[in-house]
UniProtKB/TrEMBL annotation:
Keyword flag Ribosomal protein: no
SUPFAM superfamilies assigned to the protein according to its UniProt record, in alphabetical order: Periplasmic binding protein-like I
Keywords: Signal
Biological source species: Microbispora corallina
Any Pfam family the entry gives: Bmp
Signal peptide: 1-21
Name this polypeptide is given: BMP family ABC transporter substrate-binding protein
Entry-linked PROSITE patterns: PROKAR_LIPOPROTEIN
ABC transporter substrate-binding protein PnrA-like domain sequence ranges: 41-291
Amino acid sequence: MRKIITGAALAVLATACSANTAGTATPASGGTVVPGKGSTAVGFIFVGPKDDYGYNQAAYQGSQEVAKAFPNLKVITAENVPEDDNAARVMNSMIAKGAKIVFATSYGHLDAALKVAAEHPDVVVVQQGNLITGSAPPNAGTFFGTVYEPVYLAGIAAGRATKTGKLGYVYAFPISQTIDNIDAFELGARSVNPSVKTYAVNTSSWCDPAKQAEAAANLLKQGVDVITQHQDCTATVIKATEAAGAMTVGYHADASAIAPKGWLTGSQWNWGPLYSDIVRTALGGTFTGSKYNGNFRVGYKTGDNPFVQSPYGPLVDDKTRRLIEAAKDTLKSGSPFAGPVRDQEGKVRIPDGTTPDYETIEKIDYFVEGVVGSLPKS
């Protein structure tokens, strides 16, 4: 992917579905506009609160890094923006205030983001985490990091630490990101503990503390002694696990402060540099198309990943740390999903000797061998 671009890596973010000159859009009235050029503000919408110890907090922190990097730009933020038409309304209000660069940071914001991009060809609209699968405006794109890679590494820590051989995973929805993370976590754990199992429980909500507490309690009753999650707000699960004397693997943000005894490690976002690259590219008028249909992904292979591994807790020994570092080096050219990979029924889904690309991984729709639980039917 990186070989097809010049300048900032984020120049590949827009879709290739337009026949127009890369980086430009043609409005109905004729003439040419350059998306993002001359923007006096940048907007960010978040699906939850900015202090959730999780996804939205990490995204908000990234927006504040943009404010520091571009002091002449007004940074406009909006919390608790639903994944419906309200998202389009909020983005339009930001555009009315001068934002020609808008970040829609939740998975379910994609439809609204594409709608707004179509209505405003002079505005760069980027969506965090979803995939554009059909035609789209040339001023729209998606981006994300291959976070299942550090999740795989965190699985190694969990597999080494567990005493019961039972790990727990509290997740929201069976979307591709979530399935990838659950599978990678189990694959990492099994790489050091072949008999370990991961018990997956869904809440059908990005942030419902009551459901999260119930899920954690049920997992603990089953003998699970390490719990991780894919929730936007993470504090409830972490605090419940810590109170029960069990161990925690974090996600989205560093929450080690609320689990001083049971914290192992985790995967957390560092969006500031990537957000800033996107803004810089848009302001420079070089937001261009790519053969990847606007679905830009970065990770250990690209070397500019927007995530970091969380600090280790006191229970992670030196041997585990060495195993994780060795696995991280392998991921720079390999994948957590390097074959053979089998599903829950033992069927080979990724053959031996095969290393799937990013697009293939984001289409995984099954749990791997060792995951206990079934995917909800849509």
